[in-house]
Amino acid sequence: MPKAETILSFERASFEYGHNKPILDEVNFSLRLGAKFALMGQNGAGKSTIFQLIIKKLAPESGKVNVGEGLSTALSRQVIARDELSLTVREFFERCFSEKVYNIDPRIDEVLEVVNLKGHLPAGKAGEKVHERIMKSFSGGQQARLLLASALIQNPDLLLLDEPTNNLDKAGIEHLTQFLTNYNKTVIVISHDANFLNAFTEGVLYLDLHTQKIEQYVGNYKDVVVEIAARIEKENKKNAQLAKEIQENKDKANFFAHKGGKMRNVAKKMRDKIEVMEENQVDVRKEDKTIRRFAIFHQPDLIGEVLHISAYTAMKNHKMVSLKADISMGKNRHLLLKGPNGIGKSTLLESIALGTAKGITIATGVRVGYYRQDFSTLNFDDTVYDSLMAVMEKQVEENLRSVGAGFLIPRMMKTRIGDLSEGQKGLVAFARLVLQKPGLLILDEPTNHINFRHIPVIAKALDAYQGAMILVSHVPEFVSQIRIDEILDLEK
């Protein structure tokens, strides 16, 4: 098949969830075989919906979504579905195919090598093979690689990646970047990691939340930002010049209208000209909104030692071991927990939050705010309103709605948590922390799924937090913006 052939096209495709949530409005774009594009847009704009349309899980209300005849597609999702967490690795990969695949284990081994997991996934108890391990037994970073492998094992002509760097450590991101650079098929990637995208993409599909249109650009994301800024400046200048001319003509039209006689005809012609000029004014492209600056206030009655670590657990040589430490945390102390994927960071954070970690004690009465990377602390059946109200000590609706507005979620108050995008769930989780006012803040990969525009605002809030804080993050640029008082490296 010649490289110039179109592999994917949207022709005036429209889609909406009900009558109150339009996602796409007569969208047009096309991609050639072998192209590598980023799909970007604000949280909740509908990026994942576009992927669902491409793989035919959803159908457009009108228009067409065309994938080249005989070409295969595969999607690497953001998260493993809850009903898949109890599957074995083998069962998980078998679900990737519509027909039974015999002797699938060698194919699994091969694709685990591609995503840099071969040899890094220990067998389970009593010599249990990797293929027989349960999916939920793997760390968040390992699950991210398994999701990627589930798409690659299908060897698709069109590879769709939805936030593939979430939960990946530095080595994992570098390995994925190199793989995608060398990949000779078509790729579309949803990601909020600009540096990752700039390493291999050649264009951007930008889903505008305000117009529900796709804007197609050539160049990496940095090029697109410059191009959009230049376009907005040009549109503003054009509108300013037109506004000046419109006002001058209005003044003249009013002057001639008062003269009477033939001058009224002149005034009418000028008003017709004004109408044309007003129609020529362009709608300036709206930039994505950024969440408002916010503060997470600590528990007001916080006194003395909040947390003490005398021992902790980590994975060493495929075994969980206990290690000694002597870390005391009071108010205004920030601890960074480091280590590669699979060493046990999320497991340790969860045990601390639940109060079950051996060798780690939380002072009596300390309120714990826990941000989990999989959002499992949220009840997916709750509405956003109920979820926010549940963490408030004093349930004042005005405060709830004010905080919600700051996180761009006022229109979602009646929406089920389970119906939100992953990015929107992240914003709800942060809003809950603001309303909760914890004494101990535990954050597990808090930038996953979050629009990159929001990240500096979140970093400022965490930097200023004056309670005790434990942070896990594989994003150096984010961590560098936050004051860290102590580092616990599980690998060392």
UniProtKB/TrEMBL annotation:
Specify one Pfam family. ABC_tran
The protein's UniProt keywords, in alphabetical order, are:
ATP-binding, Coiled coil, Nucleotide-binding, Repeat
Classification via PROSITE patterns: ABC_TRANSPORTER_1, ABC_TRANSPORTER_2
Cross-referenced SMART domains: AAA
Boundaries of every ABC transporter domain copy: 8-234
Q: Which residues form a coiled coil?
A: 225-287
**Residues making up the signal peptide according to the UniProt record:** none
Which GO molecular-function terms appear in the entry?
A: ATP binding; ATP hydrolysis activity
Task: Tell me the superkingdom of the source.
Answer: Bacteria
- What is the name listed in the Swiss-Prot or TrEMBL entry for this protein? ABC transporter domain-containing protein
